[in-house]
Design goal:
By secondary structure, this protein is α/β, with parallel strands linked by helices. It has five helices and nine strands. The strands form two sheets. It has a seven-stranded mixed beta sheet with strand order 1-3-2-6-9-7-8, with helices on both faces. Strands 4-5 form a two-stranded antiparallel ribbon.
Length: about 240
């Protein structure tokens, strides 16, 4: 990992579309012994499976520059507010993370969370994008729950649903099962977009893709193309004032 908890792909242009991927990496620096089973770092508790591949293809193939995290959400969750317990998770989907119990919260925030959001805020402010895409993925079924999640994709939002309304319609027209604030609500979990989009009146789409649809490069390429086309149409609709 570089000295920064993020990496950039592509050069944003003023008023263009950009992408953000808070859970792009499952990297755990060697200094941290989280005390979890070795295979846990490959699970959804450590990162958003497939999301980085989608974001990378948005940048490299569709000219939508991307800002990607470089540290696992098990070390510090960049998509949580600083003052919530889950920013350094001690358990996730029934898996205990004993190495985080009693962790030095301020040290991790100073090293990862604050530099990430300071840099992201400056990156976005410099170009004032017409649309921010927040790229996430969700597991089809939590290990701690019996129900399967039926959605192909979800659009999350808190107060500002301008872009989400158009995105939901466009994706539904392609025959997808689209969740409105599913598999969880953006009114409860929307930290990055609350901070960098809603707080500044910037339109955004917080997109949750079911991760079994993007585990392969082909799936990631298909979804990047779908999202890029959708984002262009959403931007046109917003510019038209609809």
């Amino acid at each position: 990992m570089s000295e920064f908890p993020f990496r950039l792909i592509g050069e944003p242009t003023r008023g263009g579309i950009v992408a953000v991927c808070d859970h792009a990496s499952n990297h755990v620096p060697e200094e941290f012994d989280l005390g979890i089973p070795p295979d846990a770092r490959e699970k959804h508790i450590a990162w958003d499976i497939g999301a980085a591949g989608v974001a990378e293809r948005l940048a490299r193939r569709h000219n939508i520059p991307a800002f990607l995290a470089e540290v696992s959400r098990l070390v510090v969750d960049l998509h949580r507010e600083e003052d919530v317990d889950g920013v350094i998770p001690t358990q996730s989907d029934g898996i205990l993370v004993p190495g985080n119990i009693g962790a030095n919260r301020e040290a991790r925030l100073d090293r990862y969370h604050r530099p990430y959001h300071n840099a992201l805020g400056a990156w976005i402010a410099a170009v004032e994008p017409s649309l921010i895409l927040s790229i996430h993925s969700f597991t089809p079924q939590l290990e701690s729950a019996a129900e399967k999640r039926p959605w192909d994709v979800g659009l999350l939002f808190n107060e500002d649903d301008r872009a989400a309304r158009h995105a939901m319609r466009l994706l539904s027209e392609q025959g997808m099962t689209v969740g409105k604030n599913e598999p969880y609500s953006g009114r409860e979990l929307n930290a990055t977009m609350n901070r960098h989009a809603e707080a500044h009146g910037r339109p955004y789409c917080a997109i949750e893709i079911r991760n079994d649809l993007i585990t392969t490069e082909a799936g990631q390429a298909r979804w990047a193309k779908t999202i890029a086309m959708m984002a262009g149409q959403v931007t046109l609709a917003l510019n038209a004032g609809s």
